[in-house]
Amino acid sequence: MPIPFQLFDTVSSTYTYLLGDTGSKEAVLIDPVLEHAERDAALIQQLGFKLIYAMNTHMHADHITGTGKLKSLLPGSQSVISRASGAKADVYLDDGAVVKFGQHELLATATPGHTDGCITYICHKQGIAFTGDTLLIRGCGRTDFQQGSPERLYQSIYSKIFTLPDNYTLYPAHDYKGLTATTVWEEKKYNPRLTKSLEEFVEIMKNLNLPYPKMIDKAVPANKVCGLY
Ligand SMILES: [Fe+2]
Q1: Is the keyword Iron in the record (predicted)?
Q2: pLDDT value of residue 229
């Protein structure tokens, strides 16, 4: 598996990741965005990959997932999300489940806190992890809606992500400043929220005063059914 193909949505600043096994040509897509389903499908076809799983790290509130549309564009692919997300999909993952494509595998690791159903996908062989909104570059997902809990988020990051080797590359679901990836070492050392104590972290998260998400009333109902509504 090469470095993941990192695709971007400028509206929601979402990263979508294409991972392909060059031998078997099996591929997976993490966090596709509805409006870019055609782009993603065209890239997969051009590269000669066969999409087997269109996966989400969690039930998003800021954009509609492309998993349902990709299933119709690339027949044979299946949608994947955690069981704890409460969303519908073809395949449900519990903590510790393994997603296989070709000779590669992603370990689905439950990292609740931003939402109940957040998953971090870890590929130990490559030393990479896809953290969704659990851990962002020098930030983290908000915890003020969708069953958010700053205590759980802190616990998830410390027990499941900061325990990975320092050199692991972390790929987030979003970045709003143009950064593309980070490492466990960088976030342990420089994340302005996660370098604080649990008590300080909870205070920070409770006082962010973020605006109500623009897309949430449309995105969450749609994302319960793979973006097909
Ligand atoms: Fe999110």
Answers
A1: yes
A2: 82
